[in-house]
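DM from R.C. (forwarded with permission)

"hey, sorry to bug you on a friday — could you get me a structure for this? deadline for the figure draft is monday and I only need the backbone to look sensible"
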Amino acid sequence: MSRRGRVTVGVLVGVFLLFTLIGWGIDAYTDYLWFNEVHFVNVFSGVLLTRLLLFLIIGAAMALIIGANLYLAYRLRPLLRPHSAEQATLERYRMILTPRLGTWITILCLIIGFFGGLSAQGRWKDWMLFRNAVPFGVKDPQFHVDLGFYVFDYPFWRYLLGVAFTSVVLAVIGSLAVHYIFGGVRLQGVGDRMTTAARAHLTTLVAVFVLLKAVAYVLDRRALLLEQHVSPGLYGAGYTDVNALLPAKEILAYISIVVAIAIIVFSNAGMRNLVWPGVSLALLAVSAVAIGGIYPLAVQNFSVKPSLADKERPYIARSIDATRAAFGLTNTQTTAYKANVVVPPAGLANDTSAQNARLIDPQLVSQAFTQSQQSRGFYDFGQKLDVDRYTINGKTGDYVVGAREINDDKLSAQQRNWINRHTVYTHGYGLVAAPANQVVCGGLPFFVSGFLGDDRPPGCSAPTEEIKVAQPRIYYGEQSTEYAIVGQTDPNRKVEFDRPQENNNAAEELYTYQGTGGVPIGSFFRKLVFAIKNTDSNFLLSDAVNKDSRLMYIRDPRSRVEKVAPFLTIDGDPYPAVVDGKIVWILDGYTTSATYPYSQKINLANETRDELTGQGQFALARDDVNYMRNSVKATVDAYDGTVKLYQFDDQDPVLKAWNKAFGGHLIIPKAQTPPELAAHFRYPQDLFKVQRNLLTKFHVTDPRAFFSGQDFWQVPNAPDAPSSNVKQPPYYLNVQLPQQTGIRFQLTAGVTPASRENLAALISGSYVDNKPQLSVFELPDQTVIPGPVQVHQKMTNNAVVRPQLNLLSTNNSQAQVLYGNLISLPVEDGILYVEPVYVKTGNQANAAPLLQKVLMSFGDGGTYVVLADNLKQGLEQLVAQGKAAGTGTGQSPPAQTGNNPPPATLPGELSAAAAELDQAIANVRAAQQSGDFAKYGQALQALDAAMTKFETAQKAAQPNASGTPSPNPSGSAPAPGTAPSGAASPTPGS
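My reply, with the result:
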């Protein structure tokens, strides 16, 4: 290469390295500023220092091992080489390499060390756990070693062994190449093909490799407790492993040591040739196949398989016990629930749990929240809302809540310029909440907080805020995808859009951030840094960035907690809560491990995927784990972004090790958790889904029954879309289940027998005295109680209900009937099913689904079915059906009643009521189109009165009905509670 070419290449390489180093430096500096803002610099410095040290130490070790062997191979070169065509060809390479051999070796070793260091720095978690290990206090059932060895020590030892293998293999290859180039190894010519020095060098490296193989066999013995070996499909060492493979591994380790010694002795001190070392290696290979492969296979086929259940029984028991311990299933309370009452009893209408069944589906009402509490087109509540509980007027209930945030995608083209996106539309405003079982205004939730200006629909909200929020502004939220530049000291330069005012005074809609969130960027240096970081010159040129500006970035709560605590797996469903007048995001953090002996290994992404995944709920990473604990409750302040990590499981050794690794003060002790915050803790969804899926098998604790698999369960598909192959999600309820003392806020789910659709059990997760409690209510094996898919089909195809459901859509050809969460409740010694029915007007863009009816059944899901206007009415109608059947004691039900079609001719009073109802619907439609809210409210009240009158006339016309309203008697009027085209109808009695 010419001098100019060398200079050009050098300049290009220098520029590349310069920009790479600048990029790394800016990333590190901005990360430091961010960690300093949230007061977790010890995490930044601890991780960075650990990764840097691992990069340097492992990279240097690999470079030194390989470099030393390459240099040693050069020093051991023969001074005289026999003449041959081969050596003549190699001479040109020797002439190139020899003058700068040290440089070539250094460059090669730096490259290898660099990539080795890159690999090592990614193992910082393994090293920190290895360095800060704490005992579990429990020993494995095979080697009687504390489980901490497998969780903390084994992964790092395995990695070091891999580094050693890689270094030795590269050293052998590199040394062989140097020996060949410089004549120590020859393919042609007279005499030995390898000099004595080269033979000694290479065989020593091979012997070291074999010794490492002996170490690998020792670790492989421990690894058998972590692999899938136990039949049927369980993890851990089974009969064949314990009685054949473990001894085989030990024998092979001793053979490896003998072979390593033989290689050195026979190659150098004995016959000084490679025949016997080759024979030794062949012996090791044959031994590995025979002892480590053929012998265990023979034991498995001829001893184990003929009596597999008996042989594997103790090892199945080990796997069951370990899995239940690793995933927190050990203290699960299992209760037999007979569910033998199939006729609605008289006490059903007054049952507290039945009355508390949640009607509002958080997945379906987001659009209703947005349209009713939006106030501006760019506000949004996300795809799915959350469920929490609050105490209002001395009564605790569950509420559907959502944070009103700014959706950047909904900004207009004019609003999307740099100034508006980053300095004007910086924050959302308010937490909107509605009782989970109260509906008004034709299917809208009853809002009790989060009012903005005059955005409250008439009669759809409480007169005053019932959940008080002292600081409603949301600068950190799930939809905060853009960075924000905030902060001004000049009172005349307010630029942030705050909230619309009732008098539409534009000046009062502006705000200046007064908190401590964000990184100060007033200096020129920081402006320059962030201009490079974001590739945006506006940081330097715009007047919006001044000496008082603060930059908020990484603003969504999940990303903030993941960055602060990179050792945690964060639950996919963060939720907002009002704590001491502030809006905070609460997130569940999990500690996990993949090396818990005998525990079943699962894939987090697969086990937590259901109907809601991707619909407002984050998917977890595809990590394989066999240990999981909800050890941390994290919070993110919606106003200033403060992150706090509260210890929740104070017995988790993994969390103790991580806390120790970062100085012992990273996690706030459980005893210091504020009671106001703990009152909003809820059983985490992703952990519950993992535990529910495992309980479908591991509720069976008898090894023989587990082996047969006849008592296994399965998680049902979504009831309204059973063919979609997506699992039904669990649901939060504020109820009291059998044998529970008092009402609990709990997560519930139903499971069915494997390959069948009837209900097998109900699983509940709740907190008792701030400690997790799993409960299983197991139904008899031969129960007639249907599962979620079956009961949905039975209810929707009921002869009385089906015509009414058809009317909900046929009154408006564009309407779409949607089904909410199907809840299965064990009450009154039976099973109550509650499924809200929504109607969405399809000819309107972004139309909100409105809750119009409640589909309910009791018992077998098909005999006693009602389609009511609200929960109270549905319970009363079920009780009326039970009384009409002639019994309320749980006896076998008679033939179904109430299936007669409505009369063709309407009585006079009913006909007049229907005509009045038609006129009221027309008035509501006209008022809605006019946009006059006062007129609209009056029309709704008139419609409510007309519907009440119609229902009274309808009952009078059919005195022998079982309580279920008959289908619509008028061709123009919808069924009671049905929304007219483009309008909302009230829900009487809500």
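R.C.: lifesaver. Residues 647 and 670 are 5 Å apart (CA to CA).
me: no worries. The two ends are 86 Å apart (CA to CA).
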